[in-house]
């Protein structure tokens, strides 16, 4: 499987970077190397794609954000973290149950953001009116023994219905799709927007893979005994099993790892969601770490809307890799959502084998989502 390039994609060796909050400058200066070995002059920034941190929040204007599925395991802590973002002035919480209570509870927190709860189909349009960013964690989570694809039958319909309303009411808002299987739900949303005649939406429909990066950074910091704040591991492909591909060769800081450990760590990152599902023993999947990751990604999107160049990884429509129309990639966020998709960059033989293996998996999930949306 070869990696192709288009005009809108930049070649970069991805000594990865990412967002540092408080307007800290992007890391400068590393030379960037194309996959074919050509050396580029240093970029204005050498981005870090996976090291954005929560906690040092900055104000990014006055944004309205909606969380759909806000009364759930992810929705509640995520809504709280979003309410703490200084840039968010309005927070709309939507669910099929429970949002009046969650909204009443959150509204007592003394941050400037106004919170309002909406319940049921008839209130969805009002919830979405004027939104800049819509975050979707609505849907059922896994139980032990299930794959993410086992959630398709229930979650595909939920996401499709919500996307139809977003396309109608706030077509220019950025969507952050959390509901699994992300490899299929993002194509579903794109098809819904195409059918609704919304143009250019694919750069605003972003599958949230941030938890894979958060996990990779955590595990690699533990493994290497380095400050977790300094660790930055880009993760590409998709968000299920072997489609989750951490590029440990592109990790920053540069470390030397035994090939066997690279394999073991890759497998652990790919199975980290299952690790949590099994530990929760039937009570759901990752919620707190996901809320943390989603809040970070939401904040990056809001900073992008305000005009900052922000670097993350996300799953979105692209022709970056031959044979698949969607791929989790290193991206630059900006006022229009994803402004730039970066090439995979230099990879090891092990990583290239991982790309080759994940492509057929992704193809199946994408086709399943697209077919469902067109029914
Ligand atoms: N992308 C990721 O990295 C990632 C990580 C963790 C979980 N997830 C996924 O996120 C989803 C939610 O997980 P959770 O643990 O919060 O589940 P949960 O069951 O605790 O919460 C889901 C919420 O969605 C609501 N809901 C159901 N149908 C709805 C609809 N039509 N409109 C609005 N809300 C609706 C439910 O009432 C519930 O409150 C799952 O699909 C899970 O697999 C994704
Ligand atoms: O594993 C799951 O089902 C939830 C989520 O995708 C995760 O990675 O934690």
Automatic annotation (TrEMBL):
Residues 64-197 form the Lactate/malate dehydrogenase N-terminal domain. The active site is at 239 (proton acceptor). Substrate binds at residues 142, 148, 180, 215. Residues 209-372 form the Lactate/malate dehydrogenase C-terminal domain. NAD(+) binds at residues 69-75, 95, 155, 178-180, 290. One of its GO terms (molecular function) is L-malate dehydrogenase (NAD+) activity. One of its GO terms (cellular component) is mitochondrion. The keyword Oxidoreductase applies. One of its GO terms (biological process) is tricarboxylic acid cycle. InterPro entries: L-lactate/malate_DH, Lactate/malate_DH_C, Lactate/malate_DH_N, Lactate_DH/Glyco_Ohase_4_C, Malate_DH_AS, Malate_DH_type1, NAD(P)-bd_dom_sf. Its EC number is 1.1.1.37. Residues 1-52 are annotated as: Disordered. It catalyses: (S)-malate + NAD(+) = oxaloacetate + NADH + H(+). It is an enzyme of class 1 (oxidoreductase). Belongs to the LDH/MDH superfamily. MDH type 1 family. NCBIfam families: MDH_euk_gproteo. Homodimer. This is Malate dehydrogenase.
């Amino acid at each position: 499987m070869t990696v192709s390039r288009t005009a809108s994609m930049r070649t970069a060796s991805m000594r990865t970077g990412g967002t540092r909050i408080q307007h800290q400058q992007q890391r400068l200066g590393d030379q960037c190397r194309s996959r074919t070995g050509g050396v580029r002059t240093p970029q204005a920034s050498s981005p870090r794609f996976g090291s954005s941190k929560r906690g040092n929040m900055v104000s990014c204007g006055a944004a309205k954000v909606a969380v759909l599925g806000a009364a759930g395991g992810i929705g509640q802590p995520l809504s709280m973290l979003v309410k703490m973002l200084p840039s968010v002035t309005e927070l709309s919480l939507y669910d099929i149950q429970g949002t009046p209570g969650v909204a009443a509870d959150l509204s007592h927190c003394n941050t400037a953001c106004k919170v309002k709860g909406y319940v049921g189909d008839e209130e969805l349009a009002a919830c979405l009116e004027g939104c800049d960013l819509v975050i979707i964690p609505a849907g059922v989570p896994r139980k032990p023994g299930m794959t993410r694809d086992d959630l398709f039958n229930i979650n595909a319909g939920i996401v499709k219905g919500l996307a139809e309303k977003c396309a109608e009411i706030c077509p220019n808002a950025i969507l952050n799709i959390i509901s699994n299987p992300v490899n299929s739900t993002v194509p579903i949303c794109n098809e819904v927007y195409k059918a609704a005649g919304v143009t250019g939406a694919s750069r605003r429909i972003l599958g949230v893979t941030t938890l894979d990066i958060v996990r990779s950074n955590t595990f690699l910091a533990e493994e290497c005994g380095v400050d977790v704040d300094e660790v930055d591991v880009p993760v590409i492909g998709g968000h299920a099993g072997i489609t989750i591909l951490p590029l440990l060769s592109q990790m920053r800081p540069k470390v030397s790892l035994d090939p066997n450990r690279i394999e073991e760590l890759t497998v652990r990152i790919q199975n980290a969601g299952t690790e949590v599902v099994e530990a929760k023993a039937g009570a759901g999947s990752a919620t707190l770490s996901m809320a943390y990751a989603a809040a970070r990604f939401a904040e990056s999107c809001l900073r992008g809307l305000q005009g900052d160049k922000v670097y993350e990884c996300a799953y979105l429509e692209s022709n970056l890799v031959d044979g698949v129309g969607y791929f989790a990639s290193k991206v630059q966020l900006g006022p229009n959502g994803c402004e730039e998709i970066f090439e995979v960059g230099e990879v090891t033989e092990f990583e290239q084998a991982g790309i080759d293996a994940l492509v057929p998996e992704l193809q199946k999930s994408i086709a399943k989502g697209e077919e469902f949306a067109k029914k």
